[in-house]
Amino acid sequence: MEGKLYNRKNRTTAVLIYIIIFIAYLALSRIVPLIYGLTDPVNAFLSSALAGVGMLLLLQDLLTDRIMFKAKNWWVLMLFLIAVGISSLASRRYGIADNIKTMIWFCIHFFIFYTIVPRLGDRKSEKVIRRILFGLGALWTVCVLISIAQYTFQLGYHAFMHEGLLKRQGFIENRLFGLFSDPNAAALMSMCLIFAIFYLMETDKAVWKRCLGVIAVILHFTYIILSGSRTIVICLFVAGAIKIALLAWNYCSKSDFAPRRATISIISSVLVFCAVFFCIYTPYRKALSYMPLLGDSFGENKQTICAFLKPEFPSKNPSSNNPLDDPDDLDPNEKFDAEHVFNREDVREDNILNNRQRIWKGYFNSLHGSKWIIGLSPRNAVPYIIDHDPHNYIAQTQYIVHSDYIAVIAYTGLLGTATVLLFGILSAICVFRKLKGSKHCDSFYMMTISSLCGMGIFAMSYMDILFCNTLTGVLFWILASVAIHYGDNESVPAEAEK
Fold this sequence. Notes:
With 498 residues, this protein is mainly α.
């Protein structure tokens, strides 16, 4: 018995180490200066190694503990994999290797990250997630601080990576990329970390740690505004309102308020939060537009500071001798216009969705006959559209869907859409039952629900969770595991809790 327990602990430890390494890899890949020089072959090797190890761990689990089958609604996720497989086989003439890779990442996300709570138990999983969030928070906060400094000194530039790959950095095109490869995904991570920091502050009474937490929250809120992501502001607003509603519900439950009084109290709390949010957001955003004046006050030292804040990248496109291929960087000495510093050129009043409506219409117009049932497959949609409808907007631009929800319809058809809807409904019922059956929602669960709601709104306009192997996608499935399994004693292995 001791040998069996020892082996099971070793297997659990192996999965835990894999999760930490995987998250570290995805987090570092978001920070451009840290991945500079990482060529495609090296990146492909690292990605393949993680995929291979992940599948070996899943095979081991299948032959031994079978934790994957203890996760709630695992069978629905399996049905979704079958739907992806059907669409991939139907479009195999355009290639199948990339779709197989996508299915491998789905398996790892579903049956390793989504099973973290059934695998480790409540206490240990919370401890592990807490440490992961602390590590991510420390890394992200440092990068956000440097990024805000780049905005202050109006430092914007283009980083030419390997094989002529171009990355925008600093404050450029009237939005803050900073050190990150994608400001939208970086801002989403900042939103999640804001709720994570509040959770860490609520569970740690040390005054100095709480002071650092407040500073970190301000920095992440600042980055969200400077990133120019309108979607993340909405996500933060809605998720914050849900957090306040849960806090008010906790208070009403402890005070034994009557249902009517409790409802009024919760609604009033949310309305107060809405008013406070916009009373803070609008003037703070206006104040940030004048922050570069602080950078100008450094005078001759500004150039030295800019040189320190800008990592060394090739200033010219290494794969082209044409100077027109080298975009202009932002001149830190150029006088900035505070009134228009946040005006994005890619967003106009007549195109508020930034061409998303044309993209979504293009994909819907490509669904004919059986494709409505099985979809175009995750990695063959664009080649299929180019082949069958060359005048389609997607064929001309080769844009991705820019919405996880519409991607489910376009890539997997009604079969995949039905499974996703079923999983969402069953998960929502599970969460509501947990909230209804408990008179107190702890800070860990509130952080989880708030973050997931924000991610769900983000998925309406971006593809960074479901069909992509990204940091936010992995975090989503970890938090989904908490939302569905946390507090469920039947899903907790006794050995993992020891």
